[in-house]
Amino acid sequence: xxxxxxxxxxxxxxxxxxxxxxxxxxxxxxxxxxxxxxxxxxxxxxxxxxxxxxxxxxxxxxxxxxxxxxxxxxxxxxxxxxxxxxxxxxxxxxxxxxxxxxxxxxxxxxxxxxxxxxxxxxxxxxxxxxxxxxxxxxxxxxxxxxxxxxxxxxxxxxxxxxxxxxxxxxxxxxxxxxxxxxxxxxxxxxxxxxxxxxxxxxxxxxxxxxxxxxxxxxxxxxxxxxxxxxxxxxxxxxxxxxxxxxxxxxxxxxxxxxxxxxxxxxxxxxxxxxxxxxxxxxxxxxxxxxxxxxxxxxxxxxxxxxxxxxxxxxxxxxxxxxxxxxxxxxxxxxxxxxxxxxxxxxxx
Length: 348
Prior knowledge:
The chain has helices at residues 3-14, 16-35, 42-72, 77-106, 121-187, 193-210, 218-236, 259-271, 308-322; strands spanning 216-217, 240-247, 254-255, 279-287, 291-299, 326-334, 337-345.
């Protein structure tokens, strides 16, 4: 919200009545100047226009605070149109009564010296009723602006809620697999267990720090990917070969938390756990001036079905974070290779 919008909000919330008073005084001033400009008879013009102002003000507020919210905003257009016409007819009738009585009183008081426009009933009524439409237009404009802000706030809350839900699904899934690795090392009484505990501690700290964040530095995410790979290699040892290639300058780039970890986790799950013999995984991250290009491929068996909960949650997170500014392509047509290519835009 810029300064102008904040100023308008301040006026129409904390100085609402002052704005209304200034608006009607300005309308009164403009009509007095307009109708009395030719003969400079501003006193009589002020008296005449001032008598008609209450009718215009009443009609405007009746439309803005009763007909518009009760019928127009509730899409009851037929009733709104009907009562709107009734309101205009009533306002015109009252103004004609006021005008007639005023002319009778002013018949002997320089009425011939007044501006012709000020004693033209139809012109005068049309001019004053224009204020009614102006008031309704302002009301509708403010309502549209408030509705837009409410909608944007609702969408932000919806996105935040859905992201927390996805992370609540994703993080326990990831931690469960990691704890399995640590359990395996403890059973084997491996000397690698202390290092694994440190890596797991680092990853747990990362998960807790990023649980409330929408974006994290790409460097931090890659560091946790290295920790994850290290934990998995302690378990599988020489059963899998992992190659990681990072291109471009990482500084300044951000990414949604757990995105890379989800991809590498999925590669281990379907490329190592379900493949007998030697397996392989290759991760490439290429940072250009405007995009992050991520490619991960792994060995697999063609008959393996499904991509697991990880990729499903990843797609949901990408939709929420990037909207249409990402491209995810999953290639599974090769009998012994599964690959995921992800392009993220505007992440710097």
